[in-house]
Amino acid sequence: QTAGDTEIFDRVESQVRSYSRSFPRLFTKARNAKIHGADGTEYIDFLAGCSSLNYGHNDPDMKSALIDHITSDGLTQGLDLFTNAKRDFLAAYENIILRPRNMNYRMQFTGPTGANAVEAAMKLARKVTGRQFIVSFTNGYHGVSLGALAATGNSGHRGAAGVTLSGIHRAAYDGYFGPDVDTAEMLDTQLSDPGSGIDAPAAIIVEAVQGEGGLKAASADWLRKVQAIARKHGALLIIDDIQAGCGRTGTFFSFEEIGLDPDIITHAKSISGMGLPMAAILIRPEHDIWKPAEHNGTFRGNNHAFVTARVALEKFWKNDRFEKAVKEKGDHLASRLEKIAQNHGLSARGRGMMRGVNAGSGERAEAICKECFKHDLIIETSGPHDEIVKVLCPLTIEKEVLDAGLDVMENAFATVFG
Ligand code: PMP
Fold first, then answer.
1. Is the four-CA dihedral 366, 370, 375, 378 of positive or negative sign?
2. CA nearest neighbour of 50 among 113, 121, 5
3. Which Pfam families does this chain map to (predicted)?
């Protein structure tokens, strides 16, 4: 690439940006799990818009439905007007996702980011319960707006905001004190003690698998206990499925095989199917007590996103074929990562297609990602110290492309660990 390709970004764009520091190329095209650089290089994408591209880049069916919508003058931005695009998405969501799972929820469209869905969830829990406190977990990630940021456990993300909003109690996630300490029991004890000051939470917000927190999957048993604790103490259970949902763990919801029954579920990232901005929460009909304007946002009616979101549901979730394929690919990914980890005395972790390898330190993990990029693989780190090399490829990645990317990873670990 020429210097001119990226020079404008240094001159005109805020230096707050981060991904372009790790991957300083000009990208021009993308299809499924491959991204093309302006210089003709073809990169394998193990980042997938941080799980917002579960169905890959530019799915042909989503693309053509979107083009049809645009050429027929379908609405673009509809605030919360009734539109055909929204109607068709809601009908698909009801028929393909809710009914077969016996789930009775209403969908509230929030502003377009995950953080906005989290804000809506926490506000609704306060309104429903008349309580203030929210319990979140160590290393959880819920976004960077002030309320969501306060619930976020990673201090790196919180740094710039100084003291975050109060009213959040950060409890220990599963395994935080090692395998022998039951952190759910600790939370129950604290919530049972009026002297703790956190005895009446409005909600407990939790990820079934922590994405930014380092691909840490809570055990089914721990998650069930957390749900029971929420019920016992009159708090709503919010499952943040923004990163782990939409098939990432092998099922549409990250918690469905565990049998959880959350009060509120957050959706963003891959819900729109094609990387268009869209976020929502699922709420119980009896909790649908908002008055108009209590939680709105101009961009809660992105009709282009409704079109591609509907196609995603119809194409991938009408039967269990896709789910089975994702689970198979997830098992394959697990065994290859396990081998990479074993080669160097490291550990692999995660669930479904949401997995990583603990490289032992942030420096090593960064060196591995840099080495991967030299060999045309786009991959990033996560975890409390950025020590986890994180695989979040599209769920639709072809098996050969997945293996080609994993070969690059395997070599990069070998190079860095010597
Ligand atoms: N919750 C989770 C679990 C996330 O992974 C993220 C994004 N990484 C968010 C919330 C925030 O989403 P957004 O960046 O769209 O605000």
1. positive
2. 113
3. Aminotran_3
Cα–Cα–Cα angle for 307, 312, 317, nearest 5°? 140
Bridge partner list, 217:
209
Ligand 1 mutation pick, 110, 255, 269, max ligand atoms within 8 A of CB: 269
The Cα–Cα gap between 112 and 410 comes to: 37
Please state the atom number of ligand 1 nearest to the C-alpha of residue 212.
5
Give the distance (Å) from ligand 1 centre to CA of residue 2. 34
Q: What mean pLDDT do residues 263-278 have?
A: 98
What was the pLDDT predicted at 15?
A: 87
pLDDT at 163: 66
Share of the chain above pLDDT 90, in %: 89
How do residues 292-328 score in pLDDT, each as one tens digit? 989 999 999 999 999 999 999 999 999 999 999 999 9
C-alpha torsion 406→407→413→416, nearest 10: -130
- φ/ψ of 239, rounded to 5, equals -95, 120
Task: Give the whole-angstrom CA distance, residue 337 versus residue 256.
Answer: 25
Q: Are 143 and 120 in contact (CB under 8 A)?
A: no
Report whether 138 contacts 172 (CB < 8 A): yes
Distance 186 CA to ligand 1 centre (A): 27
DSSP 8-state assignment for residue 58: S
Q: Is 223 within 8 Å of 232 (Cβ atoms)? A: no
Q: Is the pLDDT of residue 197 over 90?
A: no
Residues having CB closer than 6 A to ligand 1 are 50, 113-115, 118, 141-143, 207, 211-212, 240, 242-243, 268
Tokens of 381: 């780190």
Q: Residue 388: pLDDT above 80?
A: yes
Question: Residue 3: its pLDDT value, please?
Answer: 58
Q: Ligand 1 centroid vs 195 CA: distance in angstroms?
A: 33
Centre of ligand 1 to C-alpha 71, Å, is 32
Confidence check on the interface: ipTM exceeds 0.95, yes or no: yes
